Amino acid sequence: MKKVVAGIDIGGTITKYGIVDMEGKLCSEGSVSTTTYKDVEKYLDKLTGAIKSLLDESSEELELAGIGVGAPNANYYSGSIEYAPNLNWQGVIPLASHLNARFDVPVAITNDANAAAMGEMMYGDARNMRDFIVITLGTGLGSGIVVNGELVYGNDGFAGELGHVNVVNDGRHCGCGGRGCLETYVSATGIKRTVYELLARRTEESELRKIPFDELSSENISKSADRGDRIAIKAFEMTGRILGKCLADVVALFSPEAIFLLGGLSKAGDHIFIPTREYMEKNLMKIFRGKVKILPSGLGNTNAAIIGAAGLIRRELVDSGEL
Amino acid sequence: MKKVVAGIDIGGTITKYGIVDMEGKLCSEGSVSTTTYKDVEKYLDKLTGAIKSLLDESSEELELAGIGVGAPNANYYSGSIEYAPNLNWQGVIPLASHLNARFDVPVAITNDANAAAMGEMMYGDARNMRDFIVITLGTGLGSGIVVNGELVYGNDGFAGELGHVNVVNDGRHCGCGGRGCLETYVSATGIKRTVYELLARRTEESELRKIPFDELSSENISKSADRGDRIAIKAFEMTGRILGKCLADVVALFSPEAIFLLGGLSKAGDHIFIPTREYMEKNLMKIFRGKVKILPSGLGNTNAAIIGAAGLIRRELVDSGEL
After folding, report:
1. In the predicted model, is pLDDT for residue B301 greater than 70?
2. To pair with A311 at 20 to 30 A between CA atoms, which of A91, A230, B206, B231?
């Protein structure tokens, strides 16, 4: 029997899951919708079935040793998702115990960006780094912060909410109830809002004028930018400016060796990396200039969070002597 | 021979130093001006003489085991003060080796706020905390951040520059070359600038109209506020609002158990603590509300940084087996 762990990456829109071996290799994977199920039990039934199918369909006989989960507002200490603004399920969801009841194996959960940071540290391009930050640019903006080689959970398990740092006074309304939070500008959703603001404010022709808000995505904004669409290019420039300026402040606090950008919006490559680097450098204190790398994931764009979630439970099992 | 260490707290205006015993008790202390000496060697000659006098004048025979220093922009890794905007000495000052040459004992240096955080952790009110932040409100604003029971130095030793996080776009000019940095609003100097801005903008009578800028201090602004001076009260309220709002962002990143406010401006007590608490709570994400304490130093206002610097070298000596 080959021992494996399952990694689950719960995003605001899609939940990805996979079976990961002891070397951090993703053996098989799948996805289910996060938004379809208003009831968390029904969502977990669907997810449980899908993961059990993956295990059954394998050509080798597999033994599931544990499950790691990355999810928005997930609390490592309590094992719960608590008050996640981007999910259907309100209040406190005891996700670890729900999954433990379904699989009867140890479960560790943390926020999706912490899981991605764990993946980068165990198997990716942060293997030799003690101080770095992972930022996930999906439906929202998450951050996983590593200091002295350890994830920053904070006193209550909720540290790393960079997405809800204020960047514009009385700015855009945010799912958290606040206004002007970084993720309302810098995320797959944030850049859509920026495109619509630009389309309202400016007069240039743009192919984006043909796409309704609900069909717009960071992917089609990126493709428009590839084709030279000026609204799309301007939207990336504004997004990178806000992110870069905010990262200059983050560097002043943490002085990381590198900042990794992951998730949907980061797939736009140079469109987002170039202005982010430029505006971060421009706003950095002199002592930090030219020192901090802004990098894509070393695990590929799609699987870092699954592999990271798997890494989280693997480290737990090794630390507790079960692996 | 009784073993002791020396703690040195280099502030933008005054350098305080003291002899500290192995229990963290300050046995004797003194101070010299930081600003009088344009040449760092002359400054260190003066300081060295003063510390040697303290040792000689003791009734017991003392053996100096090491020296700990807290100073602006001090780098723990390199032992240097590097590009400190609030000091006379420009460029890179190899302070640890200068002091080692004069005393022939081990020297450890870090920024003044990190030293204060070390003091709070070893001897003060953070003894049972793993995640907390110390903010020093002196000539500038420094921060010492503790995560998982360890100081955050970052990749290059310069982490914790909360004073240079941007809080106002194109705001006040800062000694670091930037604009709108937190310390230009929230520090002993920052509140003076706020008072002058208010005196320029508003028409109320105020006893502060009689004091020239160079004679104004957070202490006399605090006394005016005690007497009900509306400009002074308004200045504290504005200072606490900017600090509280910024701390809400800091909590989102670190989720600390407590934030300690130290240094000159913190002596104003309720004038600064009440609006800071109020505006932090108002701006916190829901998940953090009511959880984070804002506290004065547990070591008294005057000596936390000296005792902290002493604690820094003491921990070094213990770790290296010399104590």
Report:
1. no
2. A91
| pTM listed for this prediction | 0.89
Residues of chain B contacting residue A291, judged by C-beta atoms under 8 Å apart: 155-156
The predicted pLDDT at position B323 comes to 78
In chain A, which stretches have pLDDT less than 70? 301-302
CATH of A2-112 among 3.30.300.20, 3.30.420.40, 3.10.150.10, 3.40.50.1100: 3.30.420.40
Architecture (CATH level 2) of domain A125-296 = 2-Layer Sandwich (3.30)
What percent of chain B has pLDDT above 70? 99
Q: Which amino acid is at A47?
A: L
- Contact B159/A at CB under 8 A: yes
> B70-103: per-residue pLDDT in tens?
998 899 999 999 888 778 898 999 999 999 999 9
Residue B2 CA to residue B95 CA, distance in Å, equals 26
Whether CATH 3.30.420.40 fits B128-296: yes
- Going from N- to C-terminal start, the domains of chain A cover 2-112, 125-296
The CATH code for residues B2-117+302-319 is 3.30.420.40
Q: Across the strands, what pairs with B92?
A: B82
Query: Which regions of chain B does DSSP assign to beta strands (E)?
Result: 2-10, 14-20, 26-33, 62-70, 74-75, 80-82, 92-93, 107-110, 132-137, 141-147, 150-151, 258-262, 293-296
Name every chain B residue with its beta carbon within 8 A of the beta carbon of A158. Answer: 255, 287-288
